[in-house]
Amino acid sequence: MATPELLQRLEKRALIAEQLIDVLRNEVAELKKASESLGHSQLEAENEQLKQEVEEWKSRLVQLELSHGKTQVPLPAKNGRMTTAYLASVPPQTPPVEKPPTSEGATQDGDIASDNKGKKKEKKAKPATESKEKAGGKGAVTVEEPPVDVGRLDLRVGRIMTAKRHPDADALYVEEVDVGEDKPRTVVSGLVKFVPLEAMQNRLAVLLCNLKPAKMRGVTSEAMVMCASSPDKVEILDPPECSQPGDEIHVEGYPRVPDPVLNPKKKIFETVAPDLKTDMEGVATYKGSPFTVPGKGVVKAFTLFGVNVK
User: Fold this and answer.
1) CA dist., res. 192 & res. 163, Å (int)
2) Longest dimension (CA), the chain
3) Angstrom distances, CA of residue 161 to CA of 4, 47, 177, 269
4) Contact between residue 183 and residue 146 where contact means Cβ atoms under 8 Å apart
5) H/E run at residue 25
6) How is the chain split into domains, by residue range?
7) One of this protein's GO BP terms (predicted)?
């Protein structure tokens, strides 16, 4: 038979177990709430980013329309304010010019004949006008997408302010980089095997700033450090010493029209990357044209010549 002491112990343990179960239930409920809140905030952030992209493309549309002589017509929006729709301008129709009668004795039959001719011309012109109206009313004007080249990349000078080892990945650094914006960007780079940690601190670099943010072992990376790369060596590209964070990288012959965010499905960077190389003097190039910071100089690798840039 169980002794009273043993029964007391069992009762105490049962009570403690019930308390632990209650605590765990509360923690699980809190975790569920926290995860739901996090998911909601992520959706809001994505929606805000999409809105910014829409506004960016709208502004590009305005510029293209104005450069091609298209008119801008303000239309009332749902909220009562005025919005702007961009419609293709239709050439004005020239009104028919009436010929003066050749003499006072112009007959009524001649007038009727001229009226009939005018009506026939109007009927012939009508289908063309209607087709233009139908085409204009179907939807927005198609915006021609810029060519896929280095001009679509948002390459900027940045300063790596701090760098540290990734807490969950031995081969990765986590950097805070000033790219000329209100706050620094977090960047994750796989450079541990090639660049010492002390060489990552407070240095200039070239950043690709319009990649879609992506998580790397739990840390969201908001840009990419551009490097000259060979199979056994990697070097961070060096902009001119007088460069400042936010300075834009230009390539002659390729107008700089970067996408707000590169669409991964279009594989723009993957298409451009094979033509990004250093020349035999270490200058970073696209199809042989150098990366430059206007008025300040070219972007170079220290020792890697004739290798890929990525």
Assistant:
1) 11
2) 140
3) 68, 30, 6, 26
4) no
5) helix 4-67
6) 1-72+140-144, 150-309
7) translation
298, β-bridge pairs: 292
User: Are the C-beta atoms of 299 and 238 separated by less than 8 Å?
Assistant: yes
Q: In this predicted model, what pLDDT tens digit does every residue of 239-294 receive, in sequence order?
A: 999 999 999 999 999 999 999 999 999 999 999 999 999 999 999 999 999 999 99
Residue that has been written with the tokens 């009939």 in this structure: 116
For residues 45 and 221, which has the higher predicted lDDT (pLDDT)? Answer: 221
Burial bucket for residue 209 (CB in 10 Å: 0-12, 13-18, 19+):
buried
In the chain, the amino acid numbered 128 is A
**Distance between CA atoms of residues 221 and 174, nearest Å:** 8
* Contact assessment for residue 86 and residue 67, using Cβ atoms and an 8 Å cutoff: no
- The pLDDT tens digits for 106-165 are 444 545 445 555 555 454 444 444 444 444 445 556 678 889 999 999 999 999 999 999
Identify the residue with better confidence: 232 or 40.
232
For every residue of 254-275, DSSP letters joined together read: B-----SS--GGGTHHHHHGGG
What does the radius of gyration of the chain's CA atoms come to, in whole angstroms?
Answer: 34
**Six-digit token string for 176:** 């805070």
Candidates 3.30.450.20, 3.40.50.720, 3.30.300.20, 2.40.50.140; CATH matching 150-309:
2.40.50.140
β pairing state of 82-87 and 71-76: antiparallel
C-alpha 94, offset from chain centre = 45
